Amino acid sequence: MSALSNNNWSRRSLFRAAAGMAAAGTLAACGSNNGRSGGGSGDSLTQYFHAYGEAGTEQAIKRYAKAYKDANVTTQWITGSNFENKLFPALLTKNAPDVFEFHPQLQLVTSGQVADLSDIINPVKDDFNPADIASHTVDGKIYGVRMIDDPQFFYYRPSLFEKAKVEVPQTLEELIEAVNKLTTDKVKGAFLGNDITPVQSPLIWSAGADTLNDKNEIAYHTDAVAEGLGQLRKLFTSGNLLLDAPADWWDPSAFTQGLTAIQWCGMWAMPVIQKALGDDVGIFPFPKVGSAGKFSVTNGGWSMFVNAKGDNVDAAKEYVKWLWIDQKEYQEDWALSYGFHIPPRTSIAQSATKLKSGLPAEGVKLFSEYGHFDNIGWTQAMIAAINDVIANSVRKGGSPDAALSAADKKVNAELKKLFG
Fold first, then answer.
1. Does the pLDDT value for residue 40 go beyond 50?
2. Angstrom distance (rounded) from CA 417 to CA 107
3. Which residues, 6 or more positions from 206, have their beta carbon under 8 angstroms from its beta carbon?
4. pLDDT tens digit sequence for 248-291
5. Cα four-point dihedral sign 103, 105, 107, 109
6. Which region holds residue 112: left if phi is over 0, alpha if psi is between -120 and 50, else beta?
7. Is there a contact between 148 and 335 (Cβ–Cβ < 8 Å)?
8. SS3 99
9. How big is the CA angle at 232 (ends 228 and 236), to the nearest 5 degrees?
10. Residue 252, helix vs strand vs coil
11. Angle, to 10 degrees, between the axis of helix 380-389 and the axis of helix 400-419?
12. Cα-based angle 314, 315, 316 (whole degrees, multiple of 5)
């Protein structure tokens, strides 16, 4: 969902056992004053959420939990940076959560960390976006319930485009040209995140490539991707990118405060952006890269998992079923009342009047036409390897091909661990 309230959720490798044990004490302190929120007797369950940026989200999650009468549900609302660096170490301790949110990751399944939820999802499977089911499925079993889908794209100020005589970019070259023209003494042309990594996957997709192919082999190392990295380097060194925003890309404040004419951000920020800028806002996908290029939109989002190694697996599954399968009113509230997110349940999405017109409807259209969903085989370590590509080629100016080759070694090592 919305990105972390205090950082771009760190994309480092998943299990860090050594750091994990040390971090467990820190995690216990997070939200430790929440108390029990459940109203019933029976099992005690703990759920972990990262701190969403939208006002009212923490209160909403605790309100839902309190309404559940079959267990006492405590919420750990984890603020600060590196949510997964607190979550995953905690999973290795006796204080592990029973239920937690994250993204579908194959090693969570292969390590036996997450429970098979097929029995609670199958009866309503046809009411979920098929891509959300596919991204959580391994060997025919479904691990995790999608709570929200979060398209990410570029926001822009039409008034500034008109003033600078700039059209909406169709290609990366046109984006660079637009950024240069839009930059003034007071406004930078664009903000792609403080470390540029938010656009690494869309750059790959927009170059007509992918992270992995259908055989779980590297698909990102192409001439077009290397060329795109070179173009991003040109943009990075132009002086026309905002590189030191007070808050990172997930927060729209750089855009709403007029620090930049274009910002990569999520649909969750749309209500705040529209409140600040009125009609002076538009959106567009990541533009085409190279001759075989395609528009692309990242679909982020968050899913709910049950800790298969916990003491209360059945009770945890019952709670997840109650909240994320049965309680459509809460699911709609979560998706639409705080920021804008696309409900993964088709029946809820179809009745979501807030997404039916104007800019939200345009966001849904971009998501439907150009959205890329999670690949469960694309792991934290692989994401970190591509982070390094951005660092070494875009920010430090090294050879894109050499940076991609270095990533290949790390990604292939991960693929061998996962798939043999």
1. no
2. 9
3. 172, 228, 285, 286, 287, 288, 289, 293, 294, 295, 296
4. 999 999 999 999 999 999 999 999 999 999 999 999 999 999 99
5. positive
6. left
7. yes
8. strand
9. 170
10. coil
11. 170
12. 90
pLDDT at position 31 over 70: no
Other Cβ atoms less than 10 A from the Cβ of 63: the count is: 13
Which of 334, 332, 367 has the alpha carbon at shortest distance from 54?
334
Q: How many residues does the chain have?
A: 420
Mean pLDDT over 234-258 rounds to 96
DSSP for 256-306, written as a single string? HTTSBSEEEEEGGGHHHHHHHHTT--EEEPBPB-STT---BEEEEEEEEEE
Amino acid present at 341? H
Q: Which helix (H) or strand (E) holds 14?
A: none
pLDDT, tens only, 297-312: 999 999 999 999 999 9
Lowest mean pLDDT among 20-24, 241-245, 387-391, 401-405: 20-24
Residues 6+ apart with CB under 8 A from 340: 267, 268, 270, 271, 354, 355, 360, 363
- DSSP state letter for 325: I
Q: Are 307 and 314 in contact (CB under 8 A)?
A: no
Taking only the tens place, the pLDDT of each residue in 337-364 is: 999 999 999 999 999 999 999 999 999 9
Residue 1 pLDDT: 43
Residue type, 350: Q
Residue 208: left if φ>0, alpha if ψ -120 to 50, beta else—which one? left
DSSP conformation class of 167: P
Distance CA 336, CA 339 (A): 6
H/E stretch holding 72 reads strand 71-78
358: left (phi over 0), alpha (psi -120 to 50) or beta: left
